[in-house]
UniProtKB/TrEMBL annotation:
Keywords assigned: DNA-binding, Transcription, Transcription regulation
Highest rank taxon of the organism: Bacteria
InterPro entries named among the record's database cross-references: Homeodomain-like_sf (IPR009057), HTH_AraC (IPR018060), HTH_AraC-typ_CS (IPR018062), Tscrpt_reg_AraC-type_HTH (IPR020449)
Single GO MF descriptor: sequence-specific DNA binding
Name of this protein: Helix-turn-helix domain-containing protein
Pfam family, one: HTH_18
UniProt-listed PROSITE patterns: HTH_ARAC_FAMILY_1, HTH_ARAC_FAMILY_2
Limits of the HTH araC/xylS-type domain: 143-241
Organism (species): Bifidobacterium pullorum subsp. gallinarum
Amino acid sequence: MTEPVVSEAKLRYLDFLSREDCVRHHRYVEEMKQYELMKNGDLSAIGESARLWTSGLYGHVCDDPLRNAKYLFVTSITLATRFVIEGGMDEEDAYNASDLYIQDVDRCTTTDEVRRLHADMMTFFTWAMADMQRGEVHSTAVVECMDYIRYHLHERITVPMLANHVHLNPTYLSELFAGETGTTISRYIADQRMEAARNMLRYSQYSVGEIAQILAYRSPSHFGKVFKDHMGVTPREYRNANAQTGIWPE
């Protein structure tokens, strides 16, 4: 009888090596979390994915680091493609994007290039799902305002500026936006800045002062006050708490 390619003895040996090297494979539910977030257009998927990719806990499938990274990339984009299709993305669009990314990863010459491409892929799919879901329930003017806000969080944003951008009366735009989203434009801008701040505190090395400047807060102290009003803790407390817990149990 021919011995199977993956025998029980080999599996036990790999398990032994994993324990000896302190290698922890991602738990299934935790690994799928990034794709569920992506499918729902939740921007935190981007940060979760970046953390998983650099954690060093993914399975070792090849001794060559570059080839190993490429194999992991292909596995990840295969899952990502399935999730976005399940979430409603056009199949042809999803598969075309997947094919292009796989062609790009084949041309990568360093593991860092693969990492950056993976971050780009997760960002592309996540924003695509977010845009698609917003487009289903909001008018063109409101979607354009959301997009403008998203790309200009580093600048001062006012209702008249948005109204000029979409060629509508400021009062009418405010009523339209509130009617479709259930929140005011000012509150939406504040919430988007706060989401960006939380992600930067969790996943970047920027100081609190730098984050305040990047997100167009008047000063670090103003940023700290607004953040505490929203989150109940200071930016430093939030960063320290999340840096301690992360998404993986010790």
